[in-house]
Amino acid sequence: MDSRFAPLPVRQLDIGSPAEPKPGQAAPAPHTDEARYRAKATEAAVKFESFFIAQALHKMRDATKAMAADDSFYKDSVNSDMLDMADNLVADQLANRRAFGVADAILRQLLPPAPVSPPENSVISKKKPTDA
């Protein structure tokens, strides 16, 4: 048997169960394509923020109806469908701007932290003592 082409042991190939993250290292993304995972997580977080804002607007509109007088135009439910649609559109716009920060909070929990690069030497430390 020719020993030049001996197969590698399975543990050297990292085949099988996923490796545990090392201490101080962020957990790997569940998908192999991290950019795709990041895009899907961002889209889901923004959609959740939009849903959250839409529910808040809906509850505020319900509270306004409950507190309004009987002859108030706030009690009129003629345009309620259009107002719900408008609330959803406003919620989408606010979520796309990340106005409430809900999507950012979710992404901080879902995505691994960005690698921290070592600080570069400052301009002051690069100057020689003889420089003026």
Automatic annotation (TrEMBL):
Region: Disordered; residue ranges are: 1-36, 112-132
Which top-rank group of organisms is this from? Bacteria
Please spell out the taxonomic lineage of the organism that makes this protein: Bacteria, Pseudomonadati, Pseudomonadota, Betaproteobacteria, Burkholderiales
Q: What is this protein called?
A: Flagellar biosynthesis protein FlgJ
Q: Which UniProt keywords apply?
A: Cell projection, Cilium, Flagellum
UniProt organism field: Pseudoduganella guangdongensis
